[in-house]
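Lecture 7, part B: from sequences to assemblies.

Below are the input chains for today's worked example.
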Amino acid sequence: MIALHDVARTAEVSKATASRALSGHGYVAAETRDRVISAAAALGYVVPGTSALPRGRTSTLGVVVPHINRWYFGEVLEGIEHALVSSGYDLTLYELSSDASERRRVMENFLVRRRVDAVIAVGIELTVSEVDLLRSLATPVVGIGGHVDGVTTLGIDDVAAAAIATDHLLALGHRDIVHVGADHYTEPDSPVYAQRLRGFRRAMATAGLEGRFRVSPLSIPDGFAHGLTLLADDTQRPTAIVAGSDEIAIGLLLAARQLGLAVPAELSIVGIDGHQLAELFGLTTLEQHPRQYGSSAVALVLATLAGSASETAPTWQPSPAHLVVRSSTSAPAHDSGREVV
Amino acid sequence: MIALHDVARTAEVSKATASRALSGHGYVAAETRDRVISAAAALGYVVPGTSALPRGRTSTLGVVVPHINRWYFGEVLEGIEHALVSSGYDLTLYELSSDASERRRVMENFLVRRRVDAVIAVGIELTVSEVDLLRSLATPVVGIGGHVDGVTTLGIDDVAAAAIATDHLLALGHRDIVHVGADHYTEPDSPVYAQRLRGFRRAMATAGLEGRFRVSPLSIPDGFAHGLTLLADDTQRPTAIVAGSDEIAIGLLLAARQLGLAVPAELSIVGIDGHQLAELFGLTTLEQHPRQYGSSAVALVLATLAGSASETAPTWQPSPAHLVVRSSTSAPAHDSGREVV
DNA sequence: ATGAAAGCGCTAACAC
DNA sequence: GTGTTAGCGCTTTCAT
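Predicted structure of the full complex, as C-alpha cells:
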C-alpha cells in the first residue's frame, strides 16, 4: 500500500509538499514538483478516496434509481458514468426498492451521511422532507424524470407528452383510445407515469371523450400479456392505444401482430421514451434523451460542487422531446417530429 | 452535520463509548448503550463512510462492467444491489469503456487505491497484472462471466454452452450453420464471446463440418440488420444459426419473420443467456442466471472480507445452465432443459 | 518555497 | 465499563 508518506520520502520532501505538488494547490518549486510527481509515478501512487476527508468531501456521487435493468434507466446511468470519467468522482448506485422502510434507510443512512457529495435522483419522487434533509446538508441534488419541488430536474413534461401522444391519435380520427400504463400504485416512487395518465385523461376530456385506463407493469412481456387480453375480444378492442412507456407499447405491438391485427391500420399505438427498439418495430413514439439527461445532470452537480453555479433558483424547464411518427409497421422511417417543450 | 462527537456529548459519554455502543464492539453497559442509541436516533445520526477508515476499509464494493444497459449486465447489477442492501456496503460502479488507456486509469486509479474493499468484475477479462495488483493489495476479487486465471468466477462454461447449442442444431439434422456473434475484436474486454465462438467451431469440427462466422455487435437492432443481409439471399442462407447472445438471436428472429421465413421450420435459431424476451419470442436458448451470479458474488466477497472463506484456492466451477428448447415460434413452452455443467 | 502540527470523523489499544 | 490516546491518509493553516 503506497501512501503519500512513501512518495514524500522517496522525493525527499514532507508530506505537505508532496500533497501540494500532486494536488496543484499552493506554492511548490517546479523542480520539486517534478521530483514528487515522478516519485509518485514510479511508486504507482494515486490519490485515495480519503483525500477529500479534511475538506469534508467524499469524491462520490450518489445516484438513486427505482430500477436498474430498464432501458431508460440504463441509458441515464451510462450517460452519468461517461460524464463522470476523469472527473475524479465515483458513482455509487442505490436501487430503491418499493419497500418504504428500505427507502427511508437508503435515503437517510447513505445519501445523507457524507457518503456522497451530491445526488442525482432518477425517476424518483423525493419527498419534501428528503429534499429538506439534503438541502440542510448542502448536498446538491438534481433530478431526472418527473418534477420535484425545489430541485432542478431534467426531463420532459410528462403531462404534455402524453397529451401530445393522445392528440396525435385523436387527430387521426380515433375515438376509442385506451391508456395502458402505470399509476401511483404500481410505480409508487416515480411521479412520471401518473403524470402521463393525467396528460392522457386531459387530452381525452378536452376532446369530450372518456379514455379507458389499464394498469400494467412496465415491461415488454407485461405489455404483451395485457395486449393479448385487451385486443383478443373485438367487442372491447380500442382502435388506438397510448402506452405509458415504450416497453409496454412494444409488448402491445407484438400482441397485436400475434393476433393478426394490422398495425397501424387496425390498431394505432404510440409510446413514450424513444426506446432503442422503437424504430425496429416501427413504433410511433415520443423520444427524449435519457443519456443526455445523465451527462447534463452530472455537469450540473459538479458545477454546483465547484461553487460556480451555486444556488441559482432551481427552475424546472422541460427538456425537448419530439413525437416520431412512423406509419409503416416495420420500415424504419424517421422524423416528422413534433417538438414538445 | 451530526458527528459522533455530538451523540457522545448528548449521551454524556466519550466518543469511544459512543462508538462501542453503536457498533456493538467492546463492552458497554446496557443502560449506557440505550442512552447512546436514543441520543443517536434523536439527533438523526448514522455512521458515515469514513467509519472504517481506521481499519483501512471503505465500506465500498467496486463493480466493473463493460456495459450498463444490456440485459445480462443489468440483471447482474440488480442481483448485486439486492444482495448488498443492509450489508452496510455501498456499490460503486465503473463502466470500462473500450478505450485501453481509460481502462488502465480506472483499474489502477480507482479500484486499486483503497477506494473499494473488494471488486466484482462482470464480463471483464482481467489481465494478470491487474489480478496481481489487486492480490497484492489483498483486495478480494470475484468475476462473473468468462474465466480469469486465479480469480473465482461465476458463470457458465461458454465453450461448452456454445457447443451444446450447436450440437442441438446438428442433432436436428442441420449442416449449414452459421454463428453470428462477437469476437475478441468487437468485445475486447470480454472473454466470453470468443469462447462461444470456439465452442461453436469445436462442435462443428467434431461433426466434420466447417461453420461460418459473422461478426455482429450485441444488440437486437444489430442482430436484425445482420439477419436481413444474411437471410435475404437464399443462395447463402444457412438453415440454422447459433447466436452469440440472445439479443442477436432475437434480432435475427425478427429479421427472419420480416423476410417471411418460418422459424423454426425454415430456419432454426438458438441463443445464449436467457434474456427475458426469449420466451416471448419462442426463442430456443441456453439459460443462465445472471441475477444469482450477482448475489452469489456478493456473498463470496463479503465472506472473504469477513475473514471466513479467506484464501481458499480460487477454483472455477461452471454454474449450471440449461438449454430451453422451444419449438413453436410464439407459444411459450418451457422445459426439456439439458443441463450444462 | 517548505515543514511542523492540527485535524477531518472515526476505531482500537491501552489504561484506569 | 469507560475514558484517554494514538492514528487511518490526507489537506491545510501557520510558521519559518
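Note for the exam: The longest strand of chain B covers residues 60-65. Keep this in mind when comparing with the next example.
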